[in-house]
Amino acid sequence: MRRKKLLMGNWKMNHTIAEAAAFCEDVKRDNLLKLARSKNVLLGVAPSYLSLQSVKKHSHGLIVASQDAHYADHGAFTSSVSIPMLKEININWSIIGHSEKRTYDGETSFTCNRKIKSLLAEGFHVVYCVGETAKEYDEGITKDIIKEQILTGLMNVSKDDISHIVIAYEPVWSIGTGKNASEEIAEDICAYIRYLISELFGKVASQKILILYGGSVKPENIHNYMACKDVDGALVGGASLKSQSFKALLENI
Ligand code: PGA
């Protein structure tokens, strides 16, 4: 089955509202959405909460995702943002389980699961991030870690809802380090994730689901990943911040 590709920029804690607006202007000026369509690529960015609304307004067809979302509709959760708040500004994509949330905020696959179920109930698309640390990689337990993250994170997700999930494989040791995983590693783990999805949700779902690689993806190396059978796109941090680099990523897919 021929799947679309997805290129998503994860801006993390970068870009003020004004900088994000300038990025959107560049996307429009450079006709990136047209280029993306011609390449069968879905194009998206995940700005900070503060610039979500203005980026969405000026997105010109870009997918605009939040970098997280709380599982509760409202309540005493200082600093969090709820799904109804996101819906109010027409956001319907969210990243969940990024390794920086897991590392700095103690996010577990259980919390991810609660968030994913709440998002799916509201019709969101979710980019669920999984990946092993350097220590786990060295110990040779990458697949055990991925399996736990997938089984727990997607617990009680229905066969209908799995079509709203994208998985991003991001080895923690490759994020922001310049040490990108080899294509062999990326393909091996993405193929393993597809196998797990087929065991859990059936063959058809496993052939349809988009599985991304993330971790030090650059315009110079993105093409190699896209040539892998089971890699359907990339989640990109650093190299997605400048519009010229984002454009080069797309051109090199
Ligand atoms: P990086 O980040 O491209 O800067 O390594 C990737 C990510 O965290 O999604």
Provide structural commentary.
The protein is an alpha/beta fold and 253 residues long. It folds into two domains: 13-66, no CATH class; 68-232, Aldolase class I (TIM Barrel), CATH 3.20.20. Helix content is 43%, strand content 16%. The protein is built from twelve helices and eight strands. It has helices at 17-29, 32-38, 49-57, 83-88, 99-104, 109-121, 134-138, 142-153, 183-201, 203-208, 222-226, 243-251, and strands spanning 5-10, 41-46, 63-66, 93-96, 125-130, 165-169, 210-214, 233-236. Strands 1-2-3-4-5-6-7-8 form an eight-stranded parallel barrel, surrounded by six helices. Helix 1 packs parallel to helix 3 (49-57), helix 6 packs parallel to helix 8 (142-153) and helix 8 (142-153) packs parallel to helix 9. The longest helix has 19 residues, at 183-201. The protein is globular. The two termini are 18 Å apart. The mean pLDDT is 97. The structure holds 2-phosphoglycolic acid. 2-phosphoglycolic acid binds at residues 10, 170, 175-176, 214-217, 235-239.
Structure at a glance:
This protein is α/β, with parallel strands linked by helices and 253 residues long. Helix content is 43%, strand content 16%. The protein is globular and about 45 Å long.
What composes the largest sheet?
8 strands, parallel, barrel
CATH architecture of the largest domain: Alpha-Beta Barrel
| CATH hierarchy, class of the largest domain | Alpha Beta
**Topology-level CATH name of the largest domain:** TIM Barrel
Q: Indicate the low-confidence ranges by residue numbers.
A: none
Structural class based on helices, strands and sheet pairing: alpha/beta
Structural domain count:
2
- Strands side by side in the biggest sheet: 1-2-3-4-5-6-7-8
Overall shape: it is: globular
Distance between the termini: 18 Å
Discrete helix count: 12
Overall pLDDT: 97
What is the share of helical residues? 40-55%
Spell out the helices and strands N to C. EHHEHEHEHHEHHEHHEHEH
Fraction in beta strands: 15-25%
What is the number of strand segments?
8
Any idea what the radius of gyration is? 17 Å
